[in-house]
Structure formats: structure tokens, C-alpha cells
Write a structure and sequence with these properties.
The structure holds two protein chains of two kinds.
Chain A: H1 5-8, H2 10-34, H3 47-74, H4 81-115, H5 124-146, H6 150-177, H7 193-237
Helix pairs in contact in A: 2-7, 3-4, 3-6, 3-7, 4-5, 4-7, 5-6
Chain B: H1 2-27, H2 61-102
The chains are: A mainly alpha, B mainly alpha.
């Protein structure tokens, strides 16, 4: 007998969730007890670790959604196992990406107020991030209204593909156009070894959290497909069908 | 099939135009000179609002950190709760439909 959602999601998701919880606790310990307090920004710099990790995963998930959209268009929406997998993965990635995007857009201004003295500024990376967040929000709205309609799903996939070049420009915005954002982390922007440990621990934790949420969301998408098939079967059995 | 192909290919054409436009804009020397550090490459006005007036510190750094981490975990928790509720409802509907399908002679 099933007693709860967690029991039913079975080993892969449960294992991922446990690993994510352990990694999150380890990352929080690293952020607050291992990494030193930054000289200029003080304790407010602690926001950086999960803010950047969330932003990186937001971009990875939106890129995954765009690639799934591309694959869906390549398959031309033909009904089939792989089309369903690609379509489901696209929606799952976009939804988790939007949640992480909300995290980035909430934690960013809180840090910016202390670091830059303003909640928001229309610098290239911030503006592009907001635009991409809104674009994938529109993708999810379109996808929700489309339901199982192939045309709607095709249009939503096209919209997700439009986000791909924008992601490229978010990544290279600091290098190409400058901006208030500091030097890219992977190019010498974070030099203290303890801060690096905290940052990579946060990155790992957010990777596991994102993977857990995407797998869980994929499971929901699969269940929706199964439910549609059951409704069809029931419809065929009904008198006069 | 055409209904899917149409908007998809139109979207691809739009993306191509956008990417080409952005690359052409990037190549323009008026916006991004090749020499000098990137931070000083282009001052297109994004600095508006930065450094114009000193920040009025009304909230402590500790409060900002607490607010940021609280927002992070509350958002993620709310999403997990939403997923679990959706999963529960879907499972209930699936079981109900299976039960109805298994009943002989009933629709």
C-alpha cells in the first residue's frame, strides 16, 4: 500500500533527494563556517554562493529546454516515445529553471543593495536574465494552454529555441559589454581556496536539487500521459463510442 | 505535421535573423572597441543609478543574508509541495480510472 509521494517515487528520485539534502547541508556548512568573511562586502557576500549556483543552473536548464524544443521541432511533433521524452524533459527543465530564476531574481537584488548600493540596475547581464526568465515563463504559459495540442506544443518549442542565443549573451555579457557584475568565477574571479570550496559545494548542492526536481517533474509528465491514455481507453469502452 | 512544421521553421528563421543582427551589432567598433579592459569597453548608460547617491543603509547585512537564504528555501519548498500535491492528485485519478476500467461490463 502506498503511504506517500516520497515512498512511491522509488529509488532513483529518493536517492537523489537524500543526496541533495546531504549536499545542501554540507554546502551551508562550507558557506557559513569554512569560507572566510569577504573584506569589502562583509557577510552579505555569503549570498553569492547560492545566488551564482542558482543562476548557473537556471541557464543550464533553460539551455536544456531550448535543445529539447529544437529536438521536438526536428521530430516534427510525431507521436512516439522519444517525442514524449523530449517534450516532457523540455517542460520539466523550463519549470525548474523558472523556479531557480525566481530565486536568482530575489536573491540578486538583496545582494546588489549591499554590493552596489541599489536594488536594481539595467546593466546587460541583469536585463538579459530578466528577459530570458520572462521568455521561459511565457513558454510555460503557452505550454499549459496548449495541453496535448501538437500545434501549441510546436509553437512553445519554437519559443524555447529563441531563448538559446539569449543564454549565450547572458554568459558573455560581462566580458563583452562590461557591467556591474564582477569577473567571471571560472576565470580567476574567486581566488581564496576556502571560498572556492564553498562555491563548488553550493554548485554541487544545486546540481543535485535541480536534478531531483527535474526527475520528479518528469515523473508527473509521464503520469499525465498515462492518465490521458486511460481516459482514451475508458472513452472507447463507453457505449456508443 | 504541417501545423507543427510551420511555426517551428518560422521561429528558426526569426532566430537566425536575431543572431545575425546581434553578431553584426557586436562587431561594430562604436560599441565594443577591441583594445582595453572589458569593464571600460562600453559605457552605454547602464551605470545609471549606480553611485549617483550614497546607499542609505537601513537594513543590516545579516538581515539581507537571512532574507536571501529564507527566500531561496521557501521558494524551493513551495515548489516541492506543489509537485507532491500534483503527483498525489494524478495518482488518485490514475487509480480511479484503472478501477473503472477493471470493472467488467461497466464504463
Amino acid at each position: 500500500m502506498r503511504t506517500g509521494w516520497f515512498e512511491d517515487v522509488k529509488n532513483p528520485v529518493a536517492g537523489l533527494a537524500v543526496a541533495a539534502a546531504v549536499a545542501v547541508v554540507a554546502a551551508l556548512v562550507a558557506v557559513f563556517f569554512v569560507a572566510p568573511r569577504e573584506a569589502t562586502l562583509g557577510i552579505s557576500q555569503k549570498i553569492f554562493y547560492f545566488h551564482v549556483a542558482s543562476a548557473i543552473h537556471m541557464m543550464v536548464l533553460f539551455a536544456l529546454c531550448g535543445l529539447c524544443g529544437l529536438a521536438y521541432l526536428g521530430m516534427r511533433g510525431r507521436p512516439g516515445r522519444w517525442t514524449a521524452v523530449v517534450d516532457g524533459l523540455g517542460v520539466a527543465a523550463a519549470e525548474v529553471g523558472v523556479v531557480l530564476g525566481a530565486v536568482v531574481l530575489v536573491t540578486g537584488p538583496l545582494w546588489a543593495r549591499k554590493a552596489w548600493g541599489t536594488w536594481w540596475t539595467w546593466e546587460p547581464r541583469l536585463t538579459l536574465s530578466l528577459m530570458v526568465f520572462l521568455l521561459f515563463l511565457a513558454y510555460l504559459a503557452l505550454r499549459a494552454f496548449a495541453g496535448s495540442d501538437r500545434f501549441g506544443r510546436g509553437v512553445a518549442s519554437g519559443l524555447a529555441v529563441v531563448g538559446l542565443p539569449a543564454l549565450y549573451f547572458i554568459h558573455f555579457a560581462v566580458e563583452r559589454w562590461g557591467g556591474a557584475h564582477p569577473q567571471v568565477v571560472f576565470k580567476g574571479g574567486l581566488q581564496n581556496p576556502d571560498m572556492q570550496v564553498a562555491f563548488y559545494a553550493s554548485l554541487l548542492a544545486m546540481s543535485l536539487v535541480s536534478a531531483t526536481l527535474v526527475v520528479l517533474r518528469l515523473r508527473i509528465e509521464r503520469l499525465k500521459g498515462r492518465l490521458d491514455a486511460l481516459y482514451l481507453a475508458l472513452d472507447r469502452r463507453s457505449p456508443g463510442a | 505535421m504541417d501545423s507543427v512544421r510551420g511555426p517551428g521553421f518560422r521561429a528558426a528563421a526569426v532566430i537566425g535573423c536575431v543572431v545575425a543582427g546581434l553578431f553584426l551589432a557586436r562587431a561594430s567598433p562604436a560599441q565594443a572597441p577591441a583594445d582595453g579592459p572589458a569593464a571600460h569597453a562600453w559605457d552605454g548608460g547602464w551605470k545609471a543609478g549606480l553611485g549617483e547617491e550614497p546607499a542609505r543603509e537601513t537594513v543590516s547585512s545579516e538581515a539581507m543574508v537571512v532574507a536571501a537564504y529564507a527566500a531561496l528555501w521557501v521558494l524551493l519548498l513551495l515548489y516541492v509541495v506543489r509537485l507532491s500535491m500534483e503527483l498525489k492528485a494524478l495518482r488518485r485519478d490514475t487509480e480511479e480510472l484503472r478501477r473503472r476500467l477493471d470493472e467488467p461490463g461497466k464504463s
